[in-house]
Amino acid sequence: MTSCALHILSEQTKANQRGERLTMAHLRACGKFGDEVIIQAVGKLKQASLIDKNSLCTSLATTCQNEVGALANDFVFELPSGERSRLAAINAEYLILYFYDTDCHESQKMKRQLEFSPLIKTLLAERRVKIMSLYPFADRHRWRKNIYDMPIMWINAIDPNNLVSDCLYDLMNLPTIYLLNRNKSVILREAKFIELESKLLDL
Question: Residue of 5, 42, 56, 77 with fewest CB within 10 Å of its CB?
Answer without folding.
Answer: 5
